[in-house]
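Narrative progress, year one. The postdoctoral researcher (J.K.) led the effort to move from monomer predictions toward full complexes, under supervision of the PI. The following entry was the first complex the group processed end to end, covering 337 residues in total.
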Amino acid sequence: MAGLLKKRQREGGEIPTASMADIAFLLLIFFLVTTTIDVDTGIGMVLPPKLEEDIDPPPIKERNVLKILVNETGLVLVEDQPSSIRLIRDEVKKHVLNEGVDPRYAEAASKALISIKTARETPYDSYVGVLDEVWMAYFEMWDSEARKLGFLDYAAYVNSVSSQDAENQIREKIKAAISIAEPDKQ
Amino acid sequence: MASSHFKKKTSTKQEIPTASLPDIIFMLLIFFMVTTVLRETTVQVRTMLPQAEALTKIDQKRLVSYVYIGPKKLDGNRLGETGVQIDDAVVEDLGDVRTIMYRKLIEQPKLIVSLKVDQTSEMGIVLDVQQEFREAGTLRINYSSKRELPS
């Protein structure tokens, strides 16, 4: 018995590090399996702030608003004319880039407004489809504006603007003014 | 010249040094530990996200709070009526959304609310929830949707 103890004391008092890598590997595999690196994507919107009771909303000229109505079955009315989701992108571009030429469309790009109205029973899918087309129209307009200024696309323009702390002039010229109207009460 | 070089090399040991292996593994381990979000909520409503093209990425995950809207999942793969879920619980009264979101906004003033809404949901409930967001003051929202697959 005493002899055994003596033998042990003669060995070096070091922790064996050979298995260190294996332990670390096991932990690594656990975290590899549990990690999800996918980035959330979606359509960003900013809701209007709560209306004050005693302040009237600012007056807006009728011609500056492009009214898009989506009904219960996903059918679309643009300015009271039957349309389809695919045509919305061009309609929005026509409306915003009109610059006062056509009396049916907006006076200026900075004044243009898009109003999306749905019924309470409208499927969310059609609403997102319409909203997507409106945003794509804006993205394409920003891209072409950036190209006019000699940038590859709008993202490149934003990069150069934010690095110089300058004002985003494209955004100033073409504001993405999208309003989500409340459905009619029945 | 060249041949003598090769001869010298063959005489050396042909093993990869493994002394730094644990360090490398630890580096990887720490990377994955930092990127992992362990707390996952169990979603009690079905959220089949719509597809869209005009997508923006949310890079800062800690600013995001999720609100799920969709038909409730029942036993045996059946679907119930539409419910609204915030964090772990389904919100029974829509008026509670306001107080919950207001508290979240105080904790995180730069809050982005990611709406994960089922494709088949009706706009009525989405607009009601949005109205509550306006009351609470959480104005930055994001309609979570997937990238459109080329057809």
